[in-house]
Design goal:
By secondary structure, the chain is α/β, with parallel strands linked by helices. 33% of the residues lie in helices and 21% in strands. It has nine helices and eleven strands.
Length: 253
């Protein structure tokens, strides 16, 4: 098995310092960034159908930068003034720092987890159990593990769908000649099958990040060849590096 061309189903990294480029150079592989899905924001009219009044909430939970973008976009479209007393709870420091795009960071009450895992937020959420939390999500949240965590902790929250994930369709003349596909959400697997209903995996390697995506791969009857995080690799790039190191050596032997 020789991997020569890898499709990463995410947008191209903004920085050339991304580990993907190091991997491409180290193993002589072609890494192509081609999202299988894209995000669309709900219109203010669509959001109002949920009958959620943002002004009723004293805190917001964010698990992605996309959630932050669409929260502030909808607030602006609906002319909602967010009070300075609003509290922000983010799953990671990088997501929290992204708030600087919209607010004066140092003057707000902002909390974030140390490892990026949702569980890390629970101590902060518990300390503010008198607050009413708005949990910003996409339309793909039916099997939301985070919501289960909030329920067990008896956090007073309401889910607010503010954006949706849709398939980013392939053109009929767009080549699909990849040796490996990397996915990051169940929606990516859905998009693969939508674009290629007769898809046969064969020798194509499939890798993914996250337990939910791994389950989607299995449910689709596909073979999962690489999964992250794992005990040896906390990220998809670390897992990919180990995978290529092992299999490229075997192929060359």
């Amino acid at each position: 098995m020789k991997v020569k061309k890898i499709l990463v189903s995410q947008p191209r990294p903004a920085s050339e310092k991304s580990p993907y480029f190091d991997i491409a150079a180290r193993y002589g592989v072609d890494v192509v960034f081609r999202p299988f899905i894209k995000v669309e924001g709900l219109s203010s009219r669509e959001f109002r159908q949920q009958k959620i009044n943002i002004a009723d909430f004293t805190a917001v939970i964010f698990t992605a930068r996309t959630a932050i973008d669409h929260f502030f976009r909808l607030c602006e479209e609906m002319r909602i003034t967010i009070p300075d007393t609003m509290k922000y709870f983010c799953t990671s420091e990088s997501i929290a720092l992204y708030l600087q795009k919209y607010i004066v960071y140092r003057k707000r009450k902002i909390f974030y987890g140390a490892t990026g895992k949702f569980d890390d937020l629970l101590p902060s959420l518990s300390k503010h159990n008198k607050d009413k939390f708005l949990y910003v999500v996409s339309d793909v949240h039916k099997d939301d593990v985070n919501a289960s965590i909030l329920d067990r902790a008896k956090v007073n929250y309401v889910k607010a769908v503010m954006y949706r994930t849709v398939s980013n369709d392939f053109a009929t003349d767009e080549p699909f000649d990849y040796d490996m596909l990397l996915f990051f959400s169940p929606a990516g697997i859905d998009s693969l099958l939508k674009n290629f209903p007769d898809f046969k995996q064969g020798d194509i390697q499939i890798g993914c990040f996250g337990a939910a995506t791994a389950k989607a791969v299995a449910d689709a009857g596909l073979r999962l060849d690489l999964e992250a995080p794992n005990p040896k690799a906390p990220s998809i790039t670390a897992a990919l590096d180990l995978f290529l190191k092992e299999h490229m050596v075997q192929a060359d032997a």
